[in-house]
């Protein structure tokens, strides 16, 4: 007899979006320009060329600031969640969401990041969103910074390299904690804080072509992420003062790396890659730097400025839970140059012959999720929360107005099954919010045709379409999963 996969009582089923990929209305009601408004449509870049998918240089910033046309800057228009949020939340409620992960666009509250008083129109918008969620008994899980830092701070402060940005971020955090303490219980400080080396402009506002060599660039990146660690710890401190029952989470991209062979050199490479992934969560969960990172600073002559009280602040203000995104695994070898390389917009690696590959080159590996969950829980022993996981694919609207996305159902089924198995191994898993629960602008190439959602949005890469919302076949499948708490698997 097949066992029934019932998840723990109170498991937080839902979905995830980000302000910069859904809201649009980029210059409405006093909003300032963010790093996302510089992201250009890049539909023709090779799937393995993740560096150029994300790259933004000084010239790109100037070009973006010189135009208000959203045609080639799709994140400026998103899916117009700014005006459709009530309709969208109603659809999320129909699926039975317990939670919705979303973010607050910093530039809606402080348009340039440096103001002393918040923009009331921005505060009012998010209050309306959170009150609508409350109406449908959906808890918001709110990310403070999801690739949306003010562009002004990039141009005038070199982004997060400046310690001044810590104070600006803490001011923003305090304002939203006080404003929404009656509406928001779950917070996340920084989205995928480990992504600083993959796409430094998007994550920390570092413009790579400003630095004379790789060492100086790496030094700036390490300084910026250190400042984010301190800002996250201070935000955690003030959240506990302002809203004692609320919870603060850290977030990393769980990049599961395998050795190609049992050659100890391959195994060592994989071990080093996984260890580097843990650096970011080690600081936020354990409250201290790993020794090998401090040794790297010393050996390479990297001058990373620690304030007088930084280490004390990090140690005293660790997070309540660890959230993660998981999309793919990768394979490494000492003989990479002679191998077939594949990868999505996260990283690249050797093609794994045991895995299927998505339309965008991502290697689909549900067992890798289970491995990652067990490893993370064994390491930290705090609650875990999967806040991104999903499949970007080319969906097709049929003549009868339906979308048959069985490939997406298969993807989610296999990953949810492995989540259940991880729970059976003792992992404390809070919840699951699949990425892009409604179609949105993709993060790296700013495409609309790379679709993730349970809900189809009738718009193409150039913003043409009715913007009608249409439930896909997966919409009803996921509804059954939530309603049965996993038992319908």
From TrEMBL:
<dbReference type="InterPro" id="IPR033132">
    <property type="entry name" value="GH_1_N_CS"/>
</dbReference>
<dbReference type="InterPro" id="IPR018120">
    <property type="entry name" value="Glyco_hydro_1_AS"/>
</dbReference>
<dbReference type="GO" id="GO:0008422">
    <property type="term" value="F:beta-glucosidase activity"/>
</dbReference>
<dbReference type="GO" id="GO:0005829">
    <property type="term" value="C:cytosol"/>
</dbReference>
<comment type="similarity">
    <text>Belongs to the glycosyl hydrolase 1 family.</text>
</comment>
<keyword id="KW-0378">Hydrolase</keyword>
<dbReference type="InterPro" id="IPR017853">
    <property type="entry name" value="GH"/>
</dbReference>
<protein>
    <submittedName>
        <fullName>Family 1 glycosylhydrolase</fullName>
    </submittedName>
</protein>
<keyword id="KW-0326">Glycosidase</keyword>
<dbReference type="InterPro" id="IPR001360">
    <property type="entry name" value="Glyco_hydro_1"/>
</dbReference>
<dbReference type="Pfam" id="PF00232">
    <property type="entry name" value="Glyco_hydro_1"/>
</dbReference>
<feature type="active site" description="Nucleophile">
    <location>
        <position position="388"/>
    </location>
</feature>
<dbReference type="GO" id="GO:0016052">
    <property type="term" value="P:carbohydrate catabolic process"/>
</dbReference>
């Amino acid at each position: 007899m097949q066992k029934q996969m019932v998840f723990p009582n109170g498991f937080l089923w839902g979905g995830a979006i980000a302000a910069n990929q859904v809201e649009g209305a980029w210059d409405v009601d006093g909003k300032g320009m963010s790093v996302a408004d510089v992201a250009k449509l890049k539909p023709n870049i090779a799937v393995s060329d993740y560096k150029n998918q994300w790259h933004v240089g000084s010239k790109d910033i100037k070009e973006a600031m010189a135009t208000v046309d959203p045609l080639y800057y799709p994140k400026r228009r998103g899916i117009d969640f700014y005006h459709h949020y009530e309709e969208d939340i109603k659809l999320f409620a129909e699926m039975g969401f317990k939670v919705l992960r979303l973010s607050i666009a910093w530039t809606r509250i402080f348009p340039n990041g440096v103001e002393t008083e918040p923009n009331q129109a921005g505060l009012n918008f998010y209050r309306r969103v959170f009150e609508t969620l409350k109406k449908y008994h959906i808890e918001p899980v709110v990310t403070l910074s999801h690739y949306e830092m003010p562009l002004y701070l990039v141009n005038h402060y070199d982004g997060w390299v400046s310690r001044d940005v810590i104070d600006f971020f803490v001011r923003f955090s305090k304002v939203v904690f006080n404003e929404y303490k009656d509406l928001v219980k779950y917070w996340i400080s920084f989205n995928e804080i480990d992504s600083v080396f993959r796409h430094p402009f998007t994550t920390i506002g570092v413009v790579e072509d400003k630095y004379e060599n790789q060492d100086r660039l790496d030094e700036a990146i390490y300084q910026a992420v250190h400042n984010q660690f301190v800002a996250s710890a201070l935000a955690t401190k003030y959240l506990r003062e302002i809203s004692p029952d609320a919870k603060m989470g850290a977030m990393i991209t769980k990049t599961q790396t395998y050795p190609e062979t049992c050659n100890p050199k391959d195994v060592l490479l994989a071990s080093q890659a996984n260890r580097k992934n843990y650096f970011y969560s080690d600081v936020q969960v354990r409250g201290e730097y790993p020794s090998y990172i401090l040794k790297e600073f010393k050996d390479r002559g990297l001058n990373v400025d620690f304030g007088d009280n930084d280490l004390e602040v990090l140690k005293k203000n660790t997070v309540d839970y660890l959230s993660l995104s998981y999309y793919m695994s990768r394979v490494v070898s000492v003989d990479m140059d002679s191998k077939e390389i594949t990868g999505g917009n996260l990283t690249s690696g050797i093609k794994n012959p045991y895995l299927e590959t998505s339309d965008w080159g991502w290697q689909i590996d549900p067992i890798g999720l289970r491995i990652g969950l067990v490893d993370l829980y064994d390491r930290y022993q705090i609650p875990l929360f999967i806040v991104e996981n999903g499949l970007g694919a080319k969906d097709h609207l049929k003549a009868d107005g339906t979308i048959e996305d069985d490939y997406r159902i298969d993807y989610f089924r296999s990953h949810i099954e492995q989540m259940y198995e991880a729970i059976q191994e003792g992992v404390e898993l809070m919840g699951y919010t699949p990425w892009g629960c409604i179609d949105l602008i993709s993060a790296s190439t700013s495409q609309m045709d790379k679709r993730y959602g349970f809900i189809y949005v009738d718009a193409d890469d150039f913003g043409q379409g009715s913007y009608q919302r249409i439930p896909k076949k997966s919409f009803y499948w996921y509804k059954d999963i939530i309603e049965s708490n996993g038992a319908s698997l």
